[in-house]
User: Which sequence fits this backbone?
């Protein structure tokens, strides 16, 4: 594409395969000039119904069958038909090659936006960010999902739909507790080796495991009531613990638990990088398409339509607006990336003081570094500038149930920047957003009960609705399950127990 | 190079398996919602599926989450008046008030609302219902035929040619017939090569071999590519399918004492019955009879929509029914059903006549006869007479009272429940 002569890209709002291809080439060239490193990609054109189908299975092209996906399909369909929601313009799948779905209803400028957003923005994020690199293997996910679907269909044939469905229900209830949050994954090949080895060990272990001992305890040894807990350290990945240690599970049941766990782990990075990822993709579609415009390859009409959708996407209503629901990740992310570029290119004195290494540096290098090495909480803690806090007019409200009134915490002023930024970063910490529940102990000598412990944070109680989930845990574990709460002061209270 | 795949024409209903699993799993709740829907709205407008709602808590997918309380800090955008450290009252009804407010169209906000297709709706609605005492009578009378595949034949019409079989046969024949020629040809070719090497072109022997090869080739080409002998046709046979013949008589009272609401109830009952019959049974006749002082047979449209009225002589309808049976549905060949709706208001003398007609003649001819009385007050003389009929024909004659619209579905369900 070294042609110097400027050739305008196809105009109008109707798209065709040729025009999509032309845009993809043009955008791809610019992305390359900016040094975006992407997986090869595949564009698939789909219809509205197919988009709703894709919604129901979290966007994955293949997935196992379960009623809950039917439920989400019906919900989406119902809301969409009533006009309560629009469908997303695109879905993009973190795989190699990266698959981007375009809806056939989109106009040509929208298709161009989606290509820039998904096929180059998200795609490069998937390839570069450390969480995705560590936890997801893009080249294997589709194969794994095919394996999962076939395996589960096979189980349904052998063991009956109902048994599999109940198992999946229970697994889904614990899906968010089926991920390794704090551990770092070792290198992939090594991981496999170790896992295989561990499994063998555990297989052997099972034959001598205390759990299996049916001999009556010897009276002399009863004095050692203070026996060691198992696991010695609390285990955060409950599904993993159950898969490996539940005494009565059949091998196929363990494999199903593993499948759910693996898929949860695959989606975990997406939950941790929403602001960064969406912001990154939005920043790039904005930059790429504007560059196209600057080069004179697209018309004013095109760029106006694009800008209109773009501004809708990055609009942040204020807290007192009736449209306010939460901080818009697109708005926050997009503005942070744009602000970061500004700090690199035109730093003010304030920026130099706050970001000495970043101010004035090469923005592409800084971008790559930031994109590769952060997740939402650390990204905000590191790069949210005072100027952006002023622009968003952020303020924090503290709701302490022991005091009758709400108190305004730090706001966007000189004294508040640091703490305000910390509070916002904390808001994106999955660890504080979701309850921290870990496997505390299992009673090997007694009734084989499993004890889970909820470590409360900021005195926040567990939602009283936990009984149903506890039932699911018990279903997987096969023996009674107890739930305890440990406060920050170290007190332990029994919250509940299954019969 | 970028790849664009057009998936638009791939199968659309990727989620249909999940959808049907959802419906199966929550069948009980959905069933209840379906019957509620019927109570609330008419049945006629079922054509394009139904929105139904089932309680959200039943289908919740529970997960651990934190509840209210403790210390929470939230960062909000758009500060317009707050300074650090100031305090203010908790805003009212942020969370608590959201409970189960009803939306304008009567669906609870907590309900999970979705649309069932017409077929799904009907399946659930009429599930476990059947016409009682249906027997196969006179199997030979109307025999339906079904065409079934039955192997291949050598004769048939061109549309039925089975290409694969035909071409396979042709290929086999060509190999079989052409094989010896091929072998001979290979021999000659070898000989020719040898001769050419030894004697070179122009030798008489070479000429002879060349000629023979030519002849052989010509003969091989004469083996036809396809021969009429190769043709194979898909063969079909007709298998007789005995059907069950049934006729349903719908008798409705449209006299003056039936006010709009009662008529409405009666019509809805019959609509339900009609939908059930046409959906569940393919071959069924429905005879609509309406009456005030005189009875007449009408078509579906008139039955459900006319506004005539007058006094009441119930026996007139029964007489007409008997006459129709005699002329058109000679009882040996047909399963006969009757459903009668009335407010029970009748001439005293006529009720006795009705008893005679039913007891002596009609009920004996039918498989099942249902009487529904639409009245809020105490039963009148017709009800008493009918009770006698019921006593003498248990299992064949059934009677129920409908007091309000909401009774329609339960009564219907009870009458046509699958038995045994």
Assistant:
């Amino acid at each position: 594409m070294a042609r110097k002569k400027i050739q305008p890209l196809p105009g109008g709002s109707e798209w065709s395969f040729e025009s999509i291809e032309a845009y993809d080439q043009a955008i791809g060239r610019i992305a390359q000039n900016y040094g975006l490193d992407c997986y090869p990609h595949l564009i698939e054109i789909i219809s509205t119904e197919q988009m709703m189908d894709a919604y129901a299975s979290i966007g994955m092209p293949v997935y196992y069958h379960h009623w809950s996906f039917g439920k989400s399909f019906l919900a989406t369909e119902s809301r969409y038909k009533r006009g309560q929601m629009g469908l997303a313009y695109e879905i993009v799948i973190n795989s190699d090659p990266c698959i981007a779905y375009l809806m056939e209803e989109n106009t040509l400028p929208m298709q161009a936006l989606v290509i820039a957003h998904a096929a180059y923005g998200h795609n490069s994020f998937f390839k570069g960010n450390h969480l995705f690199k560590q936890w997801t293997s893009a080249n294997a996910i589709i194969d794994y999902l095919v394996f999962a679907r076939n395996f589960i269909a096979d189980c349904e044939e052998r063991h009956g739909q109902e048994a599999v469905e109940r198992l999946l229900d229970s697994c889904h209830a614990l899906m968010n507790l089926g991920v390794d949050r704090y551990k770092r994954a070792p290198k992939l090949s090594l991981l496999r080796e170790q896992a295989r080895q561990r499994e063998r060990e555990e297989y052997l272990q099972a034959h001598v495991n205390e759990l299996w001992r049916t001999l009556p305890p010897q009276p002399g040894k009863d004095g050692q009531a203070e026996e060691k807990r198992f696991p010695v350290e609390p285990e955060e990945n409950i599904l993993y613990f159950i898969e490996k240690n539940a005494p009565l599970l059949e091998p196929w049941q363990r494999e199903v638990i593993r499948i759910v766990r693996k898929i949860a782990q695959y989606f975990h990075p997406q939950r941790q990088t929403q602001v960064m990822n969406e912001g990154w993709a939005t920043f790039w579609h904005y930059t790429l398409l504007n560059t196209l415009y600057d080069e004179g390859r697209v018309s004013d009409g095109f760029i106006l339509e694009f800008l209109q959708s773009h501004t809708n996407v990055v609009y942040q209503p204020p807290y007192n607006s009736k449209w306010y629901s939460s901080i818009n990740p697109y708005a926050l992310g997009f503005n942070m990336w744009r602000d970061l570029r500004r700090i690199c290119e035109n730093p003010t004195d304030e920026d130099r003081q706050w970001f000495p290494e970043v101010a004035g540096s090469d923005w592409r290098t800084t971008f790559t570094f930031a994109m590769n090495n952060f997740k939402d909480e650390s990204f905000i803690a590191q790069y949210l500038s005072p100027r952006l806090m002023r622009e968003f007019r952020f303020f924090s409200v503290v709701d302490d149930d022991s005091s009758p009134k709400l108190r305004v915490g730090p706001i966007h002023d000189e004294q508040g920047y640091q703490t305000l930024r910390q509070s916002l970063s904390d808001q994106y910490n999955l660890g504080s957003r979701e309850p921290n529940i870990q496997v505390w102990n299992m009673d090997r000598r007694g009734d084989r009960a499993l004890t889970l412990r909820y470590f409360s944070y900021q005195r926040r109680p567990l939602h009283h609705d936990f009984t149903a989930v506890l039932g699911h845990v018990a279903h997987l574990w096969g023996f009674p399950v107890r739930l305890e709460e440990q406060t920050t002061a170290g007190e332990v209270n029994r919250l509940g127990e299954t019969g | 190079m970028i790849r664009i795949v057009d998936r638009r024409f791939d199968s659309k209903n990727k989620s249909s398996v999940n959808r049907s699993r959802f419906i199966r799993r929550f069948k009980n709740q959905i069933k209840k919602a379906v019957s509620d829907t019927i109570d609330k709205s008419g049945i006629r407008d079922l054509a394009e599926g139904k929105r139904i709602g089932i309680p959200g808590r039943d289908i919740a997918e529970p997960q651990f989450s934190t509840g209210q309380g403790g210390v929470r800090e939230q960062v909000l955008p758009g500060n317009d008046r707050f300074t650090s450290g100031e305090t203010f009252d908790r805003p009212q009804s942020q969370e608590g008030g959201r409970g189960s407010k009803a939306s304008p169209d009567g669906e609870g906000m907590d309900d999970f609302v979705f649309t069932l297709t017409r077929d799904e709706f009907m399946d659930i609605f009429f599930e476990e219902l059947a016409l009682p005492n249906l027997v196969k009578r006179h199997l030979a009378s109307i025999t339906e035929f079904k065409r079934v595949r039955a192997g291949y034949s050598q004769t048939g019409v061109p549309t039925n040619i089975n290409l694969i079989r035909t071409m396979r046969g042709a290929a086999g024949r060509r190999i079989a017939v052409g094989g010896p020629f091929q072998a001979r040809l290979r021999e000659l070719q070898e000989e020719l090569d040898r001769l050419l090497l030894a004697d070179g072109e122009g030798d008489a022997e070479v000429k002879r071999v060349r000629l023979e090869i030519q002849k052989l080739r010509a003969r091989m080409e004469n083996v036809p590519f396809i021969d009429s002998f190769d043709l194979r046709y898909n063969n079909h046979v007709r298998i007789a399918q005995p059907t069950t013949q049934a006729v349903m008589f719908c008798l409705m009272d449209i006299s003056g004492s039936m006010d709009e609401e009662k008529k409405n109830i009666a019509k809805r009952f019959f609509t339900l019955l009609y939908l059930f019959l046409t959906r569940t049974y393919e071959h069924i006749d429905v005879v609509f009879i309406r009456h005030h002082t005189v009875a007449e047979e009408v078509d579906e449209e008139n039955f459900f929509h006319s506004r005539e009225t007058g006094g009441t002589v119930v026996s007139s309808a029964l007489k007409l029914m008997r006459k129709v049976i005699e002329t058109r549905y000679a009882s040996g060949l047909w399963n006969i059903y009757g459903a009668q709706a009335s407010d029970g208001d009748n001439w005293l003398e006529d009720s006795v006549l009705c008893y005679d007609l039913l007891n002596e003649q009609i009920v004996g001819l039918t498989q099942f006869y249902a009487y529904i009385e639409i009245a809020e007050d105490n039963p009148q003389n017709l009800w008493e007479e009918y009770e006698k009929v019921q006593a003498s024909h248990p299992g064949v004659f059934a009677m129920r009272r409908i007091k309000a619209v909401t009774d329609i579905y339960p009564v219907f369900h009870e009458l046509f429940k699958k038995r045994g």
About this structure: Chain A touches chain B through 97 residues (CB under 8 Å).
